[in-house]
Structures are given as structure tokens and as C-alpha cells.
């Protein structure tokens, strides 16, 4: 089972390889620039370790705090945001803090930890889903180089954002205790820079990927049967599936709904200079955290099924080809459409030789 789905295989010019290479080069340059920004910020912070202390507010009495909270301010009061009527201390900020620390963070950790525990238990009890029949050695083309490059780029960005987000949310309880303030300061600063700068890139590429894969993810009647039979775990025999089965379509539409909500809320947080107030930023933060934690939990199950959990699934996304037996067992409706295109290793080698000599190779469109 692959991370996402694509269209039926046809032939396109070799220019897709050049485009994929261009995408990778762009991403490498962008990553280098973002890392340089992170190290620059760290260098400045280390050069002036007392800067924050010099600009900190002097000691304030309890009466003054009560005055600020109640709104009874004088001409010396200055708010921290332009054109804002919020007090320095406001109830909405405390509500946000309570929601984030008492509900979102704990239950997000439970969701992710619970998913890992369920997968581990399933693996030790049921084991890996192996092919029922021997491999034929004949291959069917499933993923083009361009689609594989786009898939792995989005997947890599997703994992990076998930790890940096988890570090921002929970890292202080683990790494600060283990490594001390100096290492923890570097980790949190680097995580913040990576998360803020990679997020928009992920959002744009996710939209491109979703548009490219829309056609094969339209729900069909047999998808409901796929869910009722638990993807083949309930009852006997294989369940019908086209190029994308019910589980892959569910993951697609989860990304197309919750994923885009996470991206949109992330843009609100990433660009606070477009007039949004504190209340908007606070709710965007809560929505972003809930959606991101939920997607991270589900993605762990998805990654397991597409790699260790199912024999032959990851081959399509690494080589572009899948074995005939795998296609017949997991995507039988698609197999019936393309079974006459199956090739042996010798035929594939001959086709590759012809492609390198200047001919067109079999690839899927983006």
C-alpha cells in the first residue's frame, strides 16, 4: 500500500526527470538557506546573551498587576501590539494556555502513543501481511519518477514538520532535562526556524500533490465494501480495489480536509502581520495543534502499512514497479485494466536500454 495514489500508467516524454531533478535542487537550496538563517539567529543570541535581560520589565507589584488586568491603565501603559486594545494581561490568553496545556498536549500525546502501541500489538499478534501467492517476477508500472519525487518530498517535509512540532510542544520535558539548557536552546531555536520556513513549502507541494491525485481518489461503491471487510481482515477472499483502495482514499481525503486546515492555520501563525488579533492567533494555534497531532497519529499507521506491514507495498514507491501478484491481491480492479502491460525483468532491462538510447520510457503523468 503506497502513501498516496496516482493515475493509470501512460507514456510521457523524459522531461519529467528534469523537472523532478529541478524540484530536488530547489528544495536543497531552500533547506541550506533556512539552516543558515537558523544558525545566524543562534549566533546573534550567543553574541548577546544578556540582551533579553537588559530589555526586561522591572519589578512590578501585585497592585500594578491587578490594575493592568482590570483595564485601569494610565498614560504610561503601552500595549505590545500595534493598534490593539488588549491589556498586558488578558483572560483569553489564559484560556488558550489552559486549552493547550491541559487538553490538546496531553490528548495529542495519548493519540500518538496509543497508535504506536496498537501497531506494535498488531504486528506481534498478526504479523506482516504477506502475499498469498508466489511472486511471478513480472512487473507492472505504477509510479512515475516525477510522482515518486513529489511523494517523497511531501513525506519528508511532513515528517520533519511533525518532529519539529513535537519538539516545540513536548521537547522541554525530555531534552532539556537530558542535555541541559544550552543544547535545549539550540534544539528549540532550530526546530522553530525549520518549522516556520518549511511549513509554507509543504503547504504548496501538498496542494500540488492533492490536485495530481484527485482523479483516482473519487469514492466508489466498492470502497464501502472494503471498509466493511476491514481491508480484507474480516471474512474470506480479497476485497475489490481500483488503483487506490478504500484506506488510501481515506488518507487522501484526510489530507485534503484536515491537512489543508492545518496548512491554513499554520499560515495564520507564520504571518502575523496581516491584521489578525491575538484571539485569532490563539484559536489558530489550537486548531493547528489538534489537526497536526491527529494527522501525525494517523500517519504512523499509514507509514506502517505502506512499509513493514504489507509485503511489496513500498517497492512501487521506490522503484516505480510492483509485482503482478501484489497488484492482483491488493488492487484487483486496477490489475484487470493493466495486466497486459506486465513485463519480465529482461523486458524491463531492454526497455531501459532503449530509453537510455533516446527512446521514450513508460511513465505516469503528474
From TrEMBL:
This protein's record includes keyword Iron = yes
Membrane topology according to the record: Multi-pass membrane protein
UniProt GO cellular component terms: formate dehydrogenase complex; plasma membrane
Q: Where are the residues of the annotated region Disordered?
A: 345-366
Residue stretches making up the Cytochrome b561 bacterial/Ni-hydrogenase domain: 142-320
Q: Name one Pfam family in it.
A: Ni_hydr_CYTB
Q: Which cofactor does it need?
A: heme
Q: Which residues cross the membrane?
A: 23-44, 107-126, 150-175, 196-214, 250-271, 283-305
| Superkingdom field | Bacteria
Q: Does the keyword DNA damage apply?
A: no
**Principal location listed in the UniProt entry:** membrane
One GO biological process this protein is involved in is: anaerobic respiration
GO MF:
electron transfer activity; formate dehydrogenase (NAD+) activity; formate dehydrogenase (quinone) activity; metal ion binding
Which residue ranges have biased composition labelled Polar residues?
A: 352-366
Report the locations given in the UniProt record. Cell membrane
Q: Which keywords accompany this UniProt record?
A: Cell membrane, Electron transport, Heme, Iron, Membrane, Metal-binding, Transmembrane, Transmembrane helix, Transport
In which family does this protein belong, per the annotation? Belongs to the formate dehydrogenase gamma subunit family.
In Swiss-Prot or TrEMBL terms, this protein is called Formate dehydrogenase subunit gamma
- Species of provenance: Vreelandella andesensis
Amino acid at each position: 500500500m503506497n502513501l498516496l495514489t496516482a493515475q493509470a500508467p501512460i507514456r510521457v516524454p523524459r522531461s519529467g526527470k528534469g523537472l523532478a531533478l529541478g524540484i530536488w535542487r530547489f528544495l536543497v537550496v531552500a533547506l541550506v538557506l533556512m539552516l543558515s538563517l537558523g544558525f545566524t539567529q543562534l549566533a546573534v543570541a550567543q553574541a548577546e546573551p544578556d540582551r533579553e535581560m537588559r530589555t526586561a520589565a522591572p519589578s512590578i507589584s501585585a497592585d500594578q498587576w491587578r490594575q493592568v488586568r482590570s483595564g485601569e491603565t494610565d498614560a504610561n501603559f503601552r500595549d505590545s501590539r500595534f493598534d490593539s486594545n488588549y491589556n498586558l494581561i488578558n483572560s483569553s490568553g489564559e484560556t488558550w494556555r489552559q486549552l493547550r496545556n491541559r487538553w490538546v498536549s496531553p490528548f495529542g500525546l495519548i493519540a500518538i502513543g496509543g497508535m504506536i502501541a496498537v501497531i506494535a500489538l498488531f504486528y506481534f499478534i498478526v504479523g506482516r501481511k504477506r502475499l498469498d501467492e508466489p511472486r511471478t517476477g513480472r512487473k507492472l508500472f505504477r509510479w512515475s519518477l516525477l510522482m515518486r519525487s513529489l511523494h517523497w518530498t511531501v513525506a519528508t517535509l511532513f515528517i520533519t514538520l511533525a518532529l519539529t512540532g513535537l519538539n516545540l510542544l513536548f521537547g522541554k520535558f525530555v531534552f532539556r532535562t537530558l542535555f541541559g539548557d544550552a543544547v535545549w536552546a539550540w534544539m528549540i531555536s532550530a526546530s522553530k526556524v525549520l518549522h516556520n520556513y518549511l511549513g509554507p513549502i509543504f503547504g504548496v507541494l501538498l496542494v500540488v500533490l492533492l490536485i495530481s491525485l484527485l482523479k483516482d481518489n473519487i469514492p466508489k461503491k466498492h470502497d464501502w465494501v472494503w471498509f466493511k471487510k476491514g481491508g480484507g481482515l474480516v471474512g474470506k477472499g480479497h476485497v475489490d480495489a481500483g488503483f487506490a483502495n478504500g484506506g488510501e482514499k481515506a488518507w487522501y481525503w484526510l489530507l485534503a480536509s484536515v491537512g489543508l486546515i492545518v496548512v491554513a492555520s499554520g499560515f495564520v501563525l507564520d504571518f502575523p502581520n496581516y491584521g489578525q488579533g491575538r484571539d485569532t492567533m490563539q484559536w489558530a494555534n489550537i486548531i493547528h495543534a489538534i489537526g497536526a497531532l491527529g494527522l501525525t497519529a494517523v500517519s504512523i499507521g499509514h507509514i506502517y502499512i505502506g512499509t513493514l506491514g504489507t509485503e511489496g507495498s513500498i517497492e512501487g514507491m521506490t522503484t516505480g514497479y510492483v509485482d503482478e501478484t501484489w497488484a492482483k491481491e491488493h488492487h484487483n480492479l486496477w490489475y484487470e485494466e493493466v495486466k497486459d502491460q506486465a513485463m519480465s525483468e529482461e523486458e524491463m532491462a531492454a526497455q531501459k536500454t532503449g530509453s537510455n538510447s533516446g527512446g521514450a520510457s513508460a511513465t505516469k503523468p503528474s
